[in-house]
Design goal:
With 181 residues, the protein is an alpha+beta fold. A hairpin with a 2-residue loop joins strand 5 and strand 6. It contains two helices and 13 strands. It has a four-stranded antiparallel beta sheet with strand order 11-12-7-13, with helices on one face. A three-stranded antiparallel beta sheet has the order 1-6-5, covered by helices on one side. A three-stranded antiparallel beta sheet has the order 2-3-4, covered by helices on one side. 20% of the residues lie in helices and 37% in strands.
Length: 181
Amino acid sequence: MSRIGRLPIRIPDGVTVSVDGNRVAVQGPRGQLERAVPAQITVRVEDGQVLCERPSDGRVHRSLHGLTRTLVANMVQGVSQGFRKELELVGVGYRAQKQGEDLVLSLGFSHPVRYRPPAGVSIEVSDPTHFAVSGISKEQVGQVAADLHRLRPPEPYKGKGVMYRGEQVRRKAGKAGKGAR
């Protein structure tokens, strides 16, 4: 059995899970998420828990078992607690600010970069060099954070760029570190 797939998902207070065929809908205090799960995996709700079961021990069923359980668990966590990714700007003159719903970034280009998050995702700017992406869908939050990270990835010589909070950039020696004669 899949060690992840066989774990039951506890349903917190205030969250309801409904299964209709291969569609799973989760509703909670932060919102509602719905997703189609693979038809081979059986999802059922009993005793305040969600259980995922597979029909056989075939390779495909084993991989879908853990995936389905993780997707449903992320939906339950999203509508009850939400997800958050924190990013920071490192570099002289790099700044972030909010203008309405848009995030405006100064990243050393000749123009400011405007980014409008999709519906269901919000961006909060705590100070000019730190901001956070939050929402109920783990996939959307991660994708928005990755899009912002990709605008100016951290470079290895000076360490400048858009970084995830706590990200370690492996630094390289520049021309001076090549070896003096």
